[in-house]
Design goal:
The complex is a heterodimer of chains A (250) and B (304). Chain A is of the alpha+beta class and 250 residues long. Chain A is built from six helices and 13 strands. Chain A folds into two domains: 186 residues, Macroglobulin (MG2) domain (Immunoglobulin-like, Sandwich), CATH 2.60.40.1930; 35 residues, no CATH class. In chain A, the strands form three sheets. Chain A has a six-stranded mixed sheet. A four-stranded antiparallel sheet of chain A has the order 1-3-11-10, with no helix packed on it. Chain A has a three-stranded antiparallel sheet with strand order 5-6-8, with helices on one face. By secondary structure, chain B is mostly helical. Chain B has one domain. Chain B is globular, with a radius of gyration of 19 Å. Chain B starts with a strand and ends with a strand. The mean pLDDT of chain B is 83. Classes of the chains: A alpha+beta (250), B mainly alpha (304).
Chain lengths: 250, 304
Amino acid sequence: MRWAALLIALALALPARAQQPATTPLLTADLSTNQVEITTGFTGASVIVFGATENLIGPQTGEDVVVLAWGPSQATVVRRKVNVLGFWVNGPAATFPEIPGFYAIAATRPVWEVLPEEVRRSARLGLEALPLRAVGAQAPAFRAALLDLKQQDGRWQEYAAPVSVAGGRLFSTRVSFPDTVQTGDYRVEVLLVRDRRIVARQELFLRVDRVGTAAWIANIARTAPLLYGLGCIVLAALAGWLGSVLFRRN
Amino acid sequence: MQVYLPIAEMSVDALLLLGIGFGVGWLSGLFGVGGGFLLTPLLILIGIPSPVAVASGANQTLGASVSGLIAQWRRDNVDLRMGLVLLAGGFVGSALGVQLFAALRRAGQVDVAVSFFYVVVLGTVGMLMVRESVRAIIRRRRTGVSAARTGEHTWLHGLPFKMRFRKSRLYISIVPPLLVGFGIGVLSAVMGVGGGFMLVPAMIYLLGMPTSVVIGTSLFQVVFVSANVTLLQAWQVGSVDIVLTLLLLAGGVAGAQFGASMGTKLRGEETRALLGLLVLSVALGLAWDLIRAPENLFAIGLAR
């Protein structure tokens, strides 16, 4: 049995390698931009991931494209409300120290249809495959609430946008970032799946940054908080005084 | 028109903020209070994180009260000496309050604690104000004159460290004003309010100050205490959003002037009764939020 499996695997792998001369890769992909800028008018942004495959994509050929987007990891706490003397207050909490602040997956077919569980787990494909280890309260309800709330505010997305295919080989999808997106380095992985295996993989990078006034304000507030506080006082007082002059009604 | 708030890290409708600013400013001009007690809950209601709502609320209260203070100063309605005594207590109180706020934030109880503070403080103050002013109105209807409140002797007059407050026509110990200033300083740091709505009744009922100087003097305290809260919140919690503040102020200063010119037409008792009702309704709204079963038992936040 083991020999047979090995032979089949070899038989499948060999033509794949034979079909791959150095000039035509199995998969090639790129992003519409590698920089998302948070300006004063920022209301969220989307980045297009596009590319081409060597073979035809689709159920006939059994080739599928999976696109993953990762944000910087962000320690998150989930709190459960409890009723104390008739009031709802924050009770037990579970902290998830190492979870992506942003996560999106899109694919031509859902990954559970095209990849076995161990591959999904090791490549972290799908929200179910994310290792969500908690410190503190351990009840599974906290994990469920985390999945639920992260999806509600758009920071975790599962098949929110389709991967559309044109001409059998050109694919594209859209990764949408909500207005609450955190700044930092994001990673986009494009995977080519065939015969329940990942046969090609490409990594792309983009940066989310505040620019202009928003960046300037956030930067001062972080690096010189005392100066920023004084500035806020002066600005507010000036605005108030100016208003009393402009709108005076005697 | 959406605008991105750099510290809250979210975008909100600028017109909504201007409108909230105008409405709150109008009421604050009408009643001579900063309006922070309305503003902070409203900001939380539209989805601004509690720490940013509290800190920027204090910052906006500062700006909104400056114009009121200038107006009252011109009319010579500020008892400077009383204001400075209140302020001494207020500085100590607000410094402690910001520490308390930072500790609550670390414990993950800011949202609940802020609501709780609001319910208890606004509920009590609102009830007292409504009861007192309704009594005063009834008394006036019967006798035809406003009741004089000055000249009553209570246990407060037995305390040491007496000082003469000429403009308030008082000769009292500085301990009660110091304590009043301190208490309001703490609350202003935790609730993001200037504290005018508590200060005004405290000055009238506790200290026995004449209504004419109460509003000006309370604005004096409010301006400097909210400046202190702004500074400490920016420094230690890092949650003052100047874009949010300025948008609220732009609406607020316009509203305040309209409110102020209307406020001069109202009698003292009616103003107090209306303010009391307003305070009470905010308290009831927040209490309802604490009591009713939440739609979602769980909430997420950043771990610090």
